[in-house]
Amino acid sequence: MPELRDCVVLHGPDLAPHRCARFAWEHDTITVLDLGAPCPALEAGARVVIPGLTNGHTHIGDSALPDGATGLTLEEAFFRPAGYKYRELARLSREEHLPHLIAHQHHMARTGTVRHLDFREQGAAGAQLLRDASAQTGVEAIILNQFNTPPFSAAELAANSASLPESARAELAAMIAVADGFSESTMNDLTDAAWREIRVATSTAGKLRAIHCLESTAYRDSSLAMSRRGDLARAIDVYDAHLIVHLTVASAEEIALLACSGKTAAANPRANATLGLPLPPIAALLRAGVNLLLGTDNGMLNAPSLLPELDFAYKLAKSQCADAVSPDPAAILKMATVNIRPLLGGDHHGRLERGLPADFAVLDFHQPHLRHTRHVVASVVTRVSPADVLATYRQGRELWRDPRWT
Ligand SMILES: [Zn+2]
Question: What separation in Å is there between the alpha carbon of 397 and the centre of ligand 1?
Fold first, then answer.
């Protein structure tokens, strides 16, 4: 049975650091977690075991185009039909594209991530490509699939009455067969009748529904022009989305509406910053009690490592809270760990306890910049670099191991 001795484990739903005489797993399950005293600080280093991280929002497809959006607006880079992303992805053959997905999932594993929620473009073929990458790397992709061909013309969207054309219905069925759920760029890309159809089809198949909302004020304005309702309200009432990403420009009323709905949201502060957009109201979302995830968004904008995202999100939330005590660094780390549970359920716990899946990363807190930390969790959130990740496991399978670590 593989094991670690004399380590520190961030234990349970509170991610509380404890000494651990023995941490062992057998097959896919944690079998021994011999917990000792709480260990908020270190005197002379330790190996620190954290839950394997979940990236709450990616588009790994365009990791084939690192920094390709530099100098482009959100619309120029990412909107269909002529956005840079869609033009360039259409040029790549399957054989050219797959190695990029594999390389970036390896980068995730290398930086402590075991799973990502991917808004995969290019229809069912795009979803299958990501499935094939995951089969090689062991990094779990929760695939939220998007139409390859936009089903409606601008005039049909403005009228907001058409139902899905037959061709789109067939594409939806093909996507549901291979993916874990459905996603679209914005609520303004489909009619309300189409959203209702998709809601029924995904519910029947037991699949997830996800959407981008309020990334910029244009999302809300276009939705109001189309249906007299904002995009967040439609995402909740018409589409009944499980996961809503961005909320960059959410108002106090919209944050209250989201909190009341009980939906999970994902913030992507570095991607928003890179595009010159406002930063997401992480402090207000946390204060309102929204179950919040953290994502790196497009591979084109960010390498898919959560380590710098945790650091950025923590400091952003600190600045927004404007006091010395809020938020607790553990609240930020929960965005990449335990907060996945309400959305996915099943084997997805995001925490470490005996009997739960062996999904974890081992961090080298013997490094000079970590070994004397006065606050283990704050240092996990703000100081760990990729070189400090010794190993990453998902369900007991080694996804990454530093050759220096035996
Ligand atoms: Zn996105």
Answer: 29
